Amino acid sequence: MCRQLPGVAIFGTSKPVYVIVPALRDKGFRVEAIWGRKLVDVENTAAKLNIPFFTTQIDEVVLRKDVDLIIIFTSPNLHAQISVKALRIGKHVVCDRPGGLNQTEGLRMVRAAAYYPSLLAILAYSLRFLPNMALLKKLIHEQHIGQIKLCDIRILCGSLLDRNFSWQCDSTMGGGALALLGSNLIDLLSYLGLGRVVRVNATLRTLTPVTSTIGGIREVSCDDLCIGQLQLSGGVLATLNINTNLQGYTQEVVVCGSRGHLIAQGGDLRGRTAKDEREEVLYIDVEELNAEQSSSSSPCLTRMHVKGLMRLASYLRDRFSLNSDSGKAPLDIALEPAHFDQGLYVQSVIEALRKSSDTRQWVKVETSEEEGADSMDSWSSFP
């Protein structure tokens, strides 16, 4: 006999919500409430997803007695506000990447989670839930291609912008290729066990500041091109190339070692060692997905991210389905979520990349430990 799964509340009305809600229900969760910034948007989303309660007031959701798990898919400027409040009143939290706007907000989230270590406080970095990435990590750990020298990651995709001006057009609200896509890649470097980023050198650009519907006084201020070099603690060099001025979505992770290479392209994985004459297919993505989910054209919700979110729902089910006999959750050890301290680290790398782009020089990555600690009490209540 298993314990009943906690009631869930969703913050946000974006496309990932339309993936995670059916996935959670399929695993046995009850989705009790949803919050949205605009009443018309949250009402429409609630109706489409058959969620009984909707509101534009944060407290009306967080304080509900039938809700114990908060899932946040809002703009990054609301991540810390909602997460800190939910954790401080004893709610579990799953927050979308990158986990706030900066290190100050990331640190507040970390300290709020530390108050109640028994509570779940994780970030929805979906790439670390993919089967080919789990296999890639295993092969790296087993030194399948020897000592790792280089990790080259490329994303070529369409624009991240909404048709009209929104937070995604503004870097101060968490928009941009680096925050929305680069954060996932920085986390992936940690997940693969390649080491922590020590120094960075980056170029960030806004190639398309004006569109057919955005211009004049309010122009796009966030980056749509990110090119970076990252020196890792173990001596590995990582390179990032994110270009959101194209069409579709392609992602490639190339790991080069002293005895060969591994390439994760989309959901597949192939590689070659020194003793092989040609590349070997190591994993093929053959999982079937709902046609509506897998046809998404949004670079922030590709087929890979859909798969990651669905596996995240499986992790949450296992995390809360405590077996009454053993008292332990039957967790899949291949699923390793990112906790809030990982989000703080990712923010430190993002800030270093932005500083490097501004100063046009190499910048050391410095993760804050005390900044903002004195202001924690001011986050006990929010407007």
Put the structure in a nutshell.
By secondary structure, this protein is of the alpha/beta class. 31% of the residues lie in helices and 23% in strands.
Give the amount of beta strand, in percent. Answer: 15-25%
Distance between the termini: 42 Å
Determine Rg (CA atoms, Å).
Answer: 21 Å
What is the H/E order? EHEHEHEHEHEHEHEEEEEEEHHEHE
Measured as a percent range, the helix fraction is 25-40%
Q: Find the CATH superfamily of the largest domain.
A: Dihydrodipicolinate Reductase, domain 2
Please tell me the overall pLDDT.
Answer: 88
Q: How would you explain this protein's 3D organization?
A:
Helix content is 31%, strand content 23%. It is α/β, with parallel strands linked by helices and 383 residues long. The chain has two domains: 7-127 and 303-339, NAD(P)-binding Rossmann-like Domain (Rossmann fold, 3-Layer(aba) Sandwich); 130-294, Dihydrodipicolinate Reductase, domain 2. The strands form two sheets. Strands 14-13-12-11-7-10-9-8-16 form a nine-stranded mixed β-sheet. The longest helix has 20 residues, at 340-359. The chain is globular. The N and C termini lie far apart (42 Å). Residues 289-295, 323-327 and 370-383 have low confidence and may be disordered.
